[in-house]
Predict the 3D structure of the following.
Amino acid sequence: MHRLMLSCDTATFFITKKEYQKLSCKENFQLKMHLMGCKFCRAFNEQNAILSDKIHTLQQNPPPAELSPEKKAEIEEVLGEQ
Amino acid sequence: MGEHGDYLFSYAISRISKREIAEDLVQETLLAAFQARDKFRGGSSERTWLVSILKRKVIDHYRKESRNPESLTDNFTVPFYKGGAKDGTWIKEHAPSSWDEEIAGDADGALMEVLQYCISLLAPRMAATFSMKTLDEISTEEICKELGISESNLWVLLHRARLQLRECVENKWFKEL
């Protein structure tokens, strides 16, 4: 019985992996079973989803940032030399 | 170049936390684009084209960094017990606390700032893998090729990155409040 149960280490590994790739039926099942009995990994799963959502936003719309005036001037100069 | 420069920089800094490097990559991008401007057919928008050049330069940066032995060190603390009866279970201090609804709502973008800060703390290989796979959705094969890592390394790095980010965000967020 013990060997069928995932450790939290492996459960969080599967939770990470499923962000990028489909888990196998077996892995999905094992993960579901583990989550039923483990509040920490349940929390990790929820929190991971929140972060993924934020990361997705980061990817689509990087928060505005500005080049330093010195760098802008340097770029203008370099392009001007072309 | 004005409008594009800042946008490219925003893009670069979200992938490469170090300001000077991000600025240099933007400069290289604009220079390369300028030199290749005849080749720009106008099929995609100018911005999309510039971003594609920048993406390439970001990957080149990650690859070079990966060759540097220093980048192999990481500051990662495994949040699970190793060995013994508790093998693989969460160590109490590192285990997830419950997050209140506020953190998911995040109207003022504070969480985004915290997230970016936490990303900047990732060790070089973790940061590169995380950024390429998560932000730019580059294929596993290409990342492995560029960084010279195996597929199983890649998944370990992503796992660690996610564990570290989650813990960092939790610490930073609850401390700020």
Q: What stands out?
A: Residues 39-60 of chain A form the longest helix (22 residues). The radius of gyration of chain A is 22 Å. Residues 2-81 of chain A form one domain.
